[in-house]
Design brief:
By secondary structure, this protein is α+β, with helices and mostly antiparallel strands. It has 2 domains: about 15-60; about 85-150, no CATH class. About 45% of the residues lie in helices and about 25% in strands. It contains 5 helices and 8 strands. Strands 1-2-3-4 form a 4-stranded antiparallel beta sheet, covered by helices on one side. Helix 2 (about 20-40) runs antiparallel to helix 3.
Length: about 150
């Protein structure tokens, strides 16, 4: 049964790193390689730059948050919840997301945040066996997620 659930999942989003985040990480890697070159040698600097770039590629592939919906479940990363417990989905722009994850945050909420994604969705949960009031999810596809959960 678990395999059939996984088979009918529809991916909503997988927000990758922005160009700005890539530029910053590569700039930092190049700065470290330059420091190594100045202190040690060009060969070590080249090796460090290659190793850092490879590490950044691996990191960029493992950190995006994948959001998917099946007939019965919402999947956010490795977490899942039955759709019958979802009572409301609110699309949050950058400012509303900042306020919701900051000053108005609830410590018992489930957070699936990626700092490079400014917008998101607040999914209200109603489950008597779970004290989690809502899920706060970073996504650029909040409207699409809300529409899919409304089906």
């Amino acid at each position: 049964m678990a395999q059939s659930q996984a088979a009918d999942k529809k991916r909503i989003s997988r927000d990758r790193w922005s160009i700005g985040l890539w530029a910053f990480c590569l700039f930092m890697a190049a700065s470290l390689a330059l420091a190594i070159e100045a202190a040690l040698s060009s060969n070590l600097a080249l090796a460090a730059m290659i190793a850092q770039t490879f590490g950044l590629l691996l990191l960029s592939q493992s950190t995006p948050l994948e959001i998917a919906v099946s007939q019965d479940y919402l999947y956010v990363g490795k977490a899942s919840i039955e759709r019958k417990f979802i009572t409301h989905v609110e699309v949050l722009d950058a400012e509303a997301m900042r306020i919701t994850r900051g000053p108005k945050a609830d410590v018992s909420a489930y957070l699936a945040l990626r700092f490079w994604v400014p917008t998101g969705a607040k999914i209200t949960i109603s489950d008597s066996n779970d004290p989690t009031p809502y899920w706060l999810i970073s996504t650029k596809s909040a409207v699409k997620l809300k529409a899919e959960l409304a089906k």
